[in-house]
Amino acid sequence: MPARVDALRPADLTDEQRALYDRLLDSARATGPRPFPLADDEGRLRGPFNGMLLSPELGDSLQELGNAVRYRTGFTARQKELAILTVAAQEHSEYEWAVHAHAARGAGLTEEQIEAVRAGAACPLEDPSETAVLAAARELAATGDLTDTAFAEATAALGLNLLYELVTLVGYYRLIACQLRVLRVTD
């Protein structure tokens, strides 16, 4: 399916769009190498980032939230990628899946674990906190909620603060998956 919105060329951006464009690129540089480039050879943003330029003020706030859930939570890299992959699988978000399956491998998840997340199957994890993250993320991604039992189990395993961060992370990636789907972003 073709994209519904053409990727914006840097030369065509308004001042507000250009300011956000520059912040997005600066943020990407600050966080280190990415498995997939943020921009193509012409400087057009890829993935969810082009959409953020459509409403620079909202896009800037969304990017700040993205930075917080990616880099300023109590999650390990493995826990974070388990949760993100769970959302990508549930939402059938191929862009999110491709980017975060690569990140998950870099965080030490095995192909067997990654494919188990995609299939919604039992996932062989040795760390009980990873198992708790995966279980809670699966229920959140599937239903948008946690049963009382799941809430109690996740709170016992992760603590209330980390559970709050998990709810926020899952919600953020569900939002990004929705934007990618509606705008028909594939790369």
Written account of the structure:
α4 packs parallel to α7 and α7 packs antiparallel against α8. The chain is 66% helix and 0% strand. The mean pLDDT is 94. With 187 residues, the chain is mostly helical. It folds into two domains: 62 residues, no CATH class; 107 residues, AhpD-like. It has nine helices and no strands.
What are the key terms here?
peroxiredoxin activity; CMD-like; 2 domains; Carboxymuconolactone decarboxylase family protein; mainly alpha; elongated; AhpD-like; single chain
Topology:
Elements: H1 15-30, H2 49-52, H3 56-71, H4 77-91, H5 94-106, H6 111-119, H7 128-143, H8 148-158, H9 160-183
What is the compact description of this entry?
By secondary structure, the chain is mainly α. 66% of the residues lie in helices and 0% in strands.
End-to-end distance, in Å? 12 Å
The major β-sheet equals: none
Low-confidence stretches: none
Number of helices: 9
Average of per-residue pLDDT values: 94
- CATH architectural category of the largest domain: Up-down Bundle
Strand content: under 5%
The helix/strand order is HHHHHHHHH
In CATH's first tier, which class of the largest domain applies? Mainly Alpha
Task: Assign a percent range to the helix content.
Answer: 55-70%
* Total strands: 0
Radius of gyration: 17 Å
- Classification by helices and strands: mainly alpha
Count of discrete domains: 2
CATH topology of the largest domain: AhpD-like
What would CATH call the homologous superfamily of the largest domain? Answer: AhpD-like
Principal-axis shape equals elongated
